[in-house]
Amino acid sequence: MFSKATEYGIKAIIYIASQSMLERRVKIGEVVEHIDSPVAFTAKIVGALVKVDIVQSITGPYGGFYIDRQRMDQIKMIDIVSAIDGDSIFNGCGLGLKECDAEQPCPMHYKFVQIRADLKEMLNSTTILELAEGLKSGKSILMR
């Protein structure tokens, strides 16, 4: 459903948040090890999330990536998806047609309307804190 970049971004943020809850900063190598992602691609994605102030970064031997604990319950999943992919998941044709709207719908148009509305609601109501707590408690995983 999400682009690969968004998938890696979400997993990276959840991992970084779970470690931030333990007051740890993490290097990119540790992130990719725990989410099974390519180093350069993940570094680019996390760098983009630093630029939009979702993740913080400190350079140097004691540096790394972290998320301020007080912000974790304010950062919503939609913030991550939007920062990486924009709003493309909510627009455009589900079948990939160049033009598709209510006036000239594709065969799947009206099915996607509800799916997109539900997805947007889920992304707007899910926080990083909620997902990081699930990982920290062992109720969820990032890698098989």
Task: Provide an overview of this structure.
With 144 residues, the chain is mainly α. The protein is 51% helix and 4% strand. The protein is built from six helices and two strands. The protein has helices at 4-20, 28-35, 39-51, 77-85, 109-125, 128-137; strands at residues 56-58, 64-66. Strands 1-2 form a two-stranded antiparallel ribbon. β1 and β2 form a beta hairpin. The longest helix has 17 residues, at 4-20. The chain is elongated. It starts with a helix and ends in a 7-residue tail after the last helix. The relative contact order is 0.18.
Percent helix: 40-55%
Order of helices and strands: HHHEEHHH
Amount of beta strand: under 5%
Separation of termini? 19 Å
Shape: elongated
Based on helices, strands and strand pairing, what is the structural class? mainly alpha
Mean pLDDT: 93
Q: Looking across the biggest beta sheet, what order are the strands in?
A: 1-2
- Rg: 17 Å
The major sheet is characterized as: 2 strands, antiparallel
Helical run tally? 6
Low-confidence stretches: none
Counting DSSP E segments of at least 2 residues, the number of strands comes to: 2
List the helices and strands and how they pair.
Layout: H1 4-20, H2 28-35, H3 39-51, E1 56-58, E2 64-66, H4 77-85, H5 109-125, H6 128-137
Antiparallel strand pairs: 1-2
Helix pairs in contact: 1-2, 1-3, 1-4, 1-6, 2-3, 4-5
Briefly characterize the structure:
By secondary structure, the chain is mainly alpha-helical. The protein contains six helices and two strands, in the order αααββααα. Helices cover 51% and strands 4% of the residues.
